[in-house]
Design goal:
Number of helices: 10
Number of domains: 1
Distance between the termini: 37 Å
Order of helices and strands: HHEEHHHHHHHH
């Protein structure tokens, strides 16, 4: 008689307890599952900023005229809000997959328990889910960039650098979104995400310059992650570059690191300790 032995993957200490070097397996699983999802839901996240651009940037922009930005340069209102809506598009795509989808997999689908019963570590799962969310954010942003190009809203050759910048923005929101979601237990708690995203969208210098606010409110807005994405992308699409853009990049690097650390620790605490 042949005896078949089944062994559970052994996790040693240190890095091996967290990382198996295979986050692409999680991404592949997400892509396969996406085949059966509703594409109407996916496309809705893309069209929302497009509608804002057409209605406000082009429609309302006819009444507003030009906007003065950094260095006293004047640009059309559509060119002013387009990079901001590009950042919003990346945020929406990344947040949707890293919050609601992760919440269902974590609390109802029990998918992460199965993943962590294999050789995958918590960092593999966290990074895989974040990369999958990043792909969605990049998809939204790329489509929006094409529309900006058709409308003539990319004012400088540096606009091509907006795509890697968009990936950085999406990566930051996906990392932090998954970290926060890992602590959520009920659908009512998840409503807080939308409660935070809406004012961040309205007040992060997306639709009008930050200088319209009193100085103390400006400092509050500058703490929002979306504001940093808006300023970074606006500088690239308009060609108005400054050393301050490096601080925006650093903000998202820290945001990504914090999100990955908290998500990895949380998954390990939930399923492995």
């Amino acid at each position: 008689m042949t005896v078949v032995s089944q062994t559970t993957p052994v996790r040693s200490g240190g890095v091996r307890a967290l990382w198996a070097g295979n986050p692409q397996a999680v991404v592949q699983r997400g892509l396969i599952a996406a085949r059966s999802s509703s594409w109407v839901v996916v496309l809705s996240g893309f069209f929302e900023p497009v509608f804002y651009l057409l209605s406000m940037g082009i429609g309302l922009g006819k009444l507003i005229g030009d906007i003065q930005v950094t260095g006293g340069v004047e640009i059309s209102y559509a060119a002013f809000i387009a990079p901001a809506l590009l950042a919003v598009s990346a945020m929406n795509g990344a947040i949707y997959d890293s919050t609601w989808n992760v919440f269902f997999k974590l609390n109802y689908g029990k998918l992460y328990e199965g993943m962590l019963a294999t050789s995958l570590g918590p960092l593999d799962v966290a990074l895989g889910e974040i990369l999958y969310a990043l792909m969605r954010g990049l998809l939204y942003a790329t489509g929006f960039m094409v529309i900006m190009q058709v409308l003539g809203l990319n004012l400088a050759w540096t606009a091509i650098l907006a795509l890697p910048a968009v990936m950085l923005v999406a990566f930051g929101f996906a990392s932090l979104g998954m970290a926060i979601t890992s602590y959520m237990k009920t659908f009512q708690q998840m409503d807080w995400i939308n409660f935070v995203l809406l004012p961040m969208f309205l007040f992060s210098a997306t639709l009008y310059p930050i200088t319209v606010y009193p100085e103390w409110i400006q400092h509050v807005i500058m703490a929002f992650p979306l504001w940093h994405g808006v300023e970074l992308l606006r500088g690239l699409t308009t060609g108005i570059l400054s050393p301050d853009m490096l601080w925006h990049v650093l903000y998202y690097v820290v945001m990504i690191a914090v999100g990955l650390v908290f998500t990895t620790k949380r998954l390990r605490a939930l399923f492995l300790d």
